[in-house]
Amino acid sequence: MRRPPHVPIRTCVVCRTPGDKRGLLRVVRTAEMGTAFDATGKANGRGAYVCAAAACIELARKQKRLDRSLKATVGAEVFDALLSRVSPPEGQ
Ligand SMILES: [Zn+2]
Questions:
Q1: Is residue 75 scored above 80 in pLDDT?
Q2: What letter does residue 18 receive in the DSSP assignment?
Q3: CATH architecture of the region 24-84
Q4: How far is the CA of 31 from the centre of ligand 1 (A)?
Q5: pLDDT (tens digit, 9 = 90+) per residue, 10-45?
Q6: Closest listed residue to residue 35, CA positions, set 67, 2, 1, 80
Q7: What is the pLDDT of residue 48?
Q8: How far apart are CA 81 and CA 50, in angstroms?
Q9: Scanning 50, 51, 68, 88, which has the fewest C-beta atoms within 10 Å of its C-beta?
Q10: Residues contacting 92, CB < 8 A, separation 6+
Q11: Which residues are near ligand 1, the ion (C-beta closer than 5 Å)?
């Protein structure tokens, strides 16, 4: 048995899809600011990821997936920021 390489795997808190195929958005919890959308993906703090897809973001909001993952309340402005990053389907 070979151990897998130590690579942090990012998965969507809703659908558990790993990687960034669809583009994962990061939400970070910091001591200073509470929860916030982390546009850089590099902010210090505990992070959680959700697909850049409206369906996953809406489910995360309804089911409080990000709140649970971060053990903090994720405000409406964070979800608004996430939704603003969702690209509409192309060519339709
Ligand atoms: Zn997802």
A1: yes
A2: B
A3: 2-Layer Sandwich (3.30)
A4: 26
A5: 899 999 988 765 589 999 999 888 999 999 988 999
A6: 67
A7: 96
A8: 12
A9: 88
A10: none
A11: 12, 14-15, 51, 56
In terms of pLDDT, which residue wins out, 54 or 87?
Answer: 54
- What pLDDT score was predicted for residue 69? 96
- 51 C-alpha to center of ligand 1: Å? 4
Residue ranges covered by each domain of the chain: 24-84
pLDDT score of 3 = 74
Residue 36 corresponds to which tokens in the numbers above?
């916030």
Ligand 1 centroid, distance to 34 Cα (angstroms):
23
Residues 6+ apart with CB under 8 A from 81: 36, 37, 39
In this structure, what are the phi and psi dihedrals at residue 25, rounded to the nearest 5 degrees?
-100, 140
